[in-house]
Write a structure and sequence with these properties.
single chain; about 120 residues; four-stranded antiparallel β-sheet; two-stranded antiparallel ribbon; about 20% helix; signal; Alpha-galactosidase; Glyco_hydro_36_N; Alpga-gal_N_sf
Length: about 120
């Protein structure tokens, strides 16, 4: 296999892997949308909040643009005010959350989305 074919194959595998690992979560009201990047084992990140997005708009949002933690934790590179602080039994206040899973349930007219997080 020549260099060009190997390079194209590698890029294809990386794109496929990235799209399989990334999971975007969209929570919408009639006028607004909140989009979060929630890859299992990764950090919950804020992608978008604003006017309601169409399905086409949602397809074009890239997790690569996510550089803001949805819940900044105390103790680990939090350039903004933290959303959550915990004091462990040993007095340590460092917290690093990772996404366990995302579940969505329909209850009557409402849809409930739960993003489960845990400390690494």
């Amino acid at each position: 296999m020549n260099f060009k074919k190997r390079t194209n194959f590698l890029f294809g595998v990386l794109l496929l892997t990235g799209s399989l690992l990334a999971q975007n979560v969209c929570v919408s009201t009639p006028k607004t949308s909140l989009v979060l990047s929630a890859p299992e084992g990764g950090t919950l990140r804020h992608l978008y909040y604003g006017n309601r997005l169409s399905e086409a708009d949602l397809q074009n949002i890239s997790a690569a643009e996510a550089n803001h933690a949805a819940y900044p934790e105390y103790g680990l590179n939090a350039p903004v005010e933290t959303a959550l602080a915990v004091k462990h039994a040993d007095g340590n206040m460092t917290l690093q959350l990772e996404v366990l899973n995302v579940t969505t349930e329909k209850e009557g007219n409402a849809v409930t989305t739960v993003v489960a997080l845990k400390d690494k």
